[in-house]
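Thread title: Can someone regenerate the structure for this chain?

I was given the following input by a collaborator and told the matching structure tokens would be attached. They weren't. Posting the sequence so someone can regenerate them.
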Amino acid sequence: MPLGACGGPDLEQIETCAQLIPTLDDRAVEIDGQIAAADEVTVHYHATEPGGASGPHWITCRFAGHGLQRDRLRITGVTTDQGELSAIQLYLLREFWLGRYQAQARAEGAESPPDAAPAALSGAAGGPRRHPRLHL
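Best answer:
Regenerated them for you:
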């Protein structure tokens, strides 16, 4: 049994949730931390306006499973400090935004694109980053 299944937060769920931030918030963001439960992850971050003002925000992702369950990375719901995403918005995020990240990572032979939001989770230096936004 892989050690990652022994308990603690599911790092892949945290990374998957953090990858959604750029499509929902087109400002420069910096990850502050995360809270993980069995089938749910909340990522807290600060978004910086072009003028320099910064404010706290969060995104909560619900998943179809946890641990070693087959669908543990399938997102079933997303809520932010702006409200809950509709079923069609969720579908577009899963099929087009996350699919793009995964395809680019495979093409580059890396786990995530060079300036993907999850880099901030690992403590990478460089400050806030800007990302393209998928308009839903």
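The mean pLDDT is 77.
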